[in-house]
Amino acid sequence: MSWCFRVASSPSSGAGHMVRSLALAKSMLAVDTSSKPCFLLDDDGTDWIDAVEAAGFTHVAGTSPAGEWTGAVLDGYAFTSYEIESLRKTIGGGPLVCIEEAGDAVDHADLIVDYGCHRSGDTAAGKPALLGPTYALLDDRFADVPARPVPPAASSVLVTFGAFDSVNATGLALDALAEIAPDAAAIRVTIAIGGRSPHRDEIERRVGAFPGDVALLVDAGDMAGLLGDADLVVGSGGVSLIERMALGVPSVTVAQNDVQVAGIAGAARENATRFAGKIDDLTPEGLAGELAALIADASARKAMSDAGRKLVDGRGARRVAEHLCGLIARPPVAANAGT
Asked: What does pTM read for this prediction?
């Protein structure tokens, strides 16, 4: 079986699409060594080549991959109808699987995967679907993590809004923490950003003027390790939220865009995070109030940690992989080059 992963991989797309697709591809290879995942990257997605190759996968460029493909996984929201039709021709009659989190109808999908906490059931928009956090696409580092100790007061706060953070939610979080810092000298703040963040210079200036203990990390490689060292996270929705739920890290979550709102609100209803709101609706003072209350409330953080671990056990990628490998009951269909 040869699976093509067409993934939004440009810097402006952030890291979430690639992170979860890599987790799924690794699990597929573990389930069936003949699955042979190949990644179709954006023209400016070359930053991901090392990660793809390190996982043992191949990669190609362009919107019309030639070859023999059993099925395809589509992860992104800006693909053209031409690209989708090209994938259809490439996989012949094989399944086209769409990873979705916006709750939109996906007419071109044969199977929808949406692991949002607000989702359940086995159909979406009339299509077969794998729905809910039991299908969260995370790698093995996040599987079956033991319960973590919860200190009386949170002293280590991590700010992480993804590799790109075009709306500079990181800056908002820094301003909010600066409101708290004079009265909470024991708090250590870690800021994690991507090297291509369009607001990197501004964030560096704010870090330099921060009235407390703060460290800036650029392109941190071990996000699981950073999350494991944090008592509290201020962060985004999407994959980042699912990761901290699996690790039992309490958090205040800010929606960077409309796509993230439903997933964050669903997690908040399950008490797995606090939903601060959409970034356009927030002020540093308002976010500071949310953070200060949670920093001081150990019982709330413990309940949040337990709720997150209960919802996300880190084995969702394996479940999805087993389902996808089980879909294939015929040999791959040859496609003409350039179609």
From this structure: 0.91
Structure tokens at 117: 């906490």
The pLDDT, as a whole number, for residue 339 is 31
- DSSP E strands in 223-305: the ranges are 232-235, 251-255, 274-278
Nearest to 238 by CA among 106, 138, 331, 149: 138
Choice among 94-103, 130-139, 197-206, 324-333 with the minimum mean pLDDT: 324-333
**Which tens digits make up the pLDDT trace of 214-251?**
999 999 888 899 999 999 999 999 999 999 999 999 99
Task: For strands 127-131 and 111-114, give the pairing.
Answer: parallel
Within the chain, strands assigned E span 3-7, 38-41, 58-61, 67-69, 71-75, 96-99, 111-114, 123-124, 127-131, 156-160, 188-193, 213-218, 232-235, 251-255, 274-278, 333-335
Mention every residue, 6+ apart, whose C-beta is less than 8 A from residue 79.
6, 8
CA-based angle 288:274:220, to the nearest 5?
75
Phi, psi for 182 (deg, rounded to 5): -60, -30
d(CA 155, CA 301): 13
Distance CA 114, CA 134 (A): 10
Quickly list DSSP for 167-184.
T-HHHHHHHHHHHHGGG-
| Residues 327/98/19/23 CA torsion (nearest 10 deg) | -10
pLDDT at site 338: 36
Whole-angstrom Cα distance, residue 165 to residue 169?
Answer: 7
What's the pLDDT score for residue 56?
A: 93
